[in-house]
Amino acid sequence: MASPVQQFEIEPIVPINVGIVDLSFTNSALAMAFAVAVSSAIFYVGTRRLALVPGRLQSVAELFYEFVANMVKDNVGREGMQYFPFIFTLFLFVFFGNMLGMVPGNFTYTSHILVTGALALFIFGAVTVIGFSRHGLGYLRMFFPKGAPILTAPILIPIEVISYLSRPFSLSVRLFANMTVGHIMLKVLAGFVVALGLVAGVVPLAAVIGITVLEFFIAALQAYVFTILTCIYLNDAIHMH
Amino acid sequence: MPQFDPTSFTSQLFWLIVFFVLLYRYLTRMVIPRLGEVIEDRERTVREDIRRADEFKARTNAAIEAYEKALAEARGQAQAILKETQETVAQATEARRREVSEALSRRIEEGEARIAAARSQALEGAREAACDVVVALSDKLMGDAVGSTKAQASVDAVMREAR
């Protein structure tokens, strides 16, 4: 039986090396290409003939658009709409990464800490830059809210700093861990089905089916969570708290 | 775990940036402006339709109000005409009644006068006849005619008594 973590192995398809840097086109890159292709295809077909009364695919495209647009409007407000394109891309990238990762045999690039970490660090950096450019040094008040007694500063400021700095870690680890654990669980249980044979194997098979449904739910939910936390961080940067 | 193998990091990061930027550019150039526009268009259309519906509703309400006002006015006018007519009719009836009753009372008075005249005439006739009878009777019975003056006086006395 193959190791349950074998599915996360990154294998080059087209080896590319620039100097000593390895930029090979891998199964991970292929999955990203697939996700980008699928989401682009939905929007290409959905927006080919735009109508005031939308057809089926236009409705799907609008559903995605309005879902993210409302998320941004509700959590960040009107000023947040200038960052809508990035958040929209982020949601689609994570959503289709998670969802298409559920296709058997397809690689799940969101189960890799580097991908989620890079996204989270980019968001963290961008939010920090936006915060300082909007509020100047006043953004440092994030670490010591107005109205708190000055005596609490020695405790409050380190806590706030740590919680602020831990954002990219919690954001990236949450997504990476959810995806990884789900896929490992499916793999292990599927292994039991084979090991237990035709009769007793029915039990883990039922579990696999149930967890597959759960994993689809988690795939959508984690994309939502990742995006809404980005909105919340952005809101903090724009409006402080 | 392959996730913590740093040899794949550079290629993962590189392709992540490539595909993320690709999707971002496609969405910002082709999808978001058009989709945003069609959604905004729809919102505008709906808003405009609602505004027009409100306008029509206001006009309907105004028409209903005008109609009700006209109806109330007409009703008031009808009532006024009715009242006026009733008054006219009552006046005419009253005048006619008075006229008729005056004519009637006049005729009654005339009649009464005629009755009184006829009665006094009849009484006079009866008195004369009685006088004549007294004169004639006294003449036949006693052979001696009572004087007409005396007969008249006794007849008058009897008649006063009878009355």
Automatic annotation (TrEMBL), chain A:
State the Gene Ontology terms under molecular function.
proton-transporting ATP synthase activity, rotational mechanism
Query: What superkingdom does the record give?
Result: Bacteria
Q: Name one Pfam family in it.
A: ATP-synt_A
Q: Which SUPFAM superfamilies match?
A: F1F0 ATP synthase subunit A (SSF81336)
The way this protein sits in the membrane is described as:
Multi-pass membrane protein
Q: Which GO terms describe its cellular component?
A: plasma membrane; proton-transporting ATP synthase complex
Q: Where in the cell is it found?
A: Cell membrane; Membrane
Q: Which UniProt keywords apply?
A: ATP synthesis, Cell membrane, CF(0), Hydrogen ion transport, Ion transport, Membrane, Transmembrane, Transmembrane helix, Transport
Looking at the UniProt entry, the stretches that span the membrane are 29-47, 83-103, 109-131, 143-164, 184-209, 216-235
**Which CDD domains does the protein's record reference?**
ATP-synt_Fo_a_6
Q: Which PROSITE patterns match?
A: ATPASE_A (PS00449)
**Primary role:** Key component of the proton channel; it plays a direct role in the translocation of protons across the membrane.
For this chain, the family text in UniProt reads: Belongs to the ATPase A chain family.
What is the protein named? ATP synthase subunit a
Q: List the source organism.
A: Roseospira visakhapatnamensis
Automatic annotation (TrEMBL), chain B:
**Membrane topology per record:** Single-pass membrane protein
* The entry's keywords: ATP synthesis, Cell membrane, CF(0), Coiled coil, Hydrogen ion transport, Ion transport, Membrane, Transmembrane, Transmembrane helix, Transport
Listed transmembrane segments: 12-27
State where it is primarily located.
membrane
Tell me one GO molecular function of this protein.
proton-transporting ATP synthase activity, rotational mechanism
Q: Which InterPro entries match?
A: ATP_synth_b/b'su_bac/chlpt (IPR002146), ATP_synthase_B_chain (IPR050059)
Look up the coiled coil feature and give its residue ranges: 57-121
Q: Which GO terms describe its cellular component?
A: endomembrane system; plasma membrane; proton-transporting ATP synthase complex
Cellular compartments annotated: Cell membrane; Endomembrane system
Q: Which CDD domains match?
A: ATP-synt_Fo_b
Q: What does this protein do?
A: F(1)F(0) ATP synthase produces ATP from ADP in the presence of a proton or sodium gradient. F-type ATPases consist of two structural domains, F(1) containing the extramembraneous catalytic core and F(0) containing the membrane proton channel, linked together by a central stalk and a peripheral stalk. During catalysis, ATP synthesis in the catalytic domain of F(1) is coupled via a rotary mechanism of the central stalk subunits to proton translocation. Component of the F(0) channel, it forms part of the peripheral stalk, linking F(1) to F(0). The b'-subunit is a diverged and duplicated form of b found in plants and photosynthetic bacteria.
Subunit comment = F-type ATPases have 2 components, F(1) - the catalytic core - and F(0) - the membrane proton channel. F(1) has five subunits: alpha(3), beta(3), gamma(1), delta(1), epsilon(1). F(0) has three main subunits: a(1), b(2) and c(10-14). The alpha and beta chains form an alternating ring which encloses part of the gamma chain. F(1) is attached to F(0) by a central stalk formed by the gamma and epsilon chains, while a peripheral stalk is formed by the delta and b chains.
PANTHER family, alphabetized: ATP SYNTHASE SUBUNIT B, ATP SYNTHASE SUBUNIT B', CHLOROPLASTIC
What does the sequence similarity comment in the record state about its family? Belongs to the ATPase B chain family.
Could you identify this protein by its name? Answer: ATP synthase subunit b
| Protein source organism | Roseospira visakhapatnamensis
Q: What are the top taxonomic ranks of the organism?
A: Bacteria, Pseudomonadati, Pseudomonadota, Alphaproteobacteria, Rhodospirillales
| Originating gene | atpF
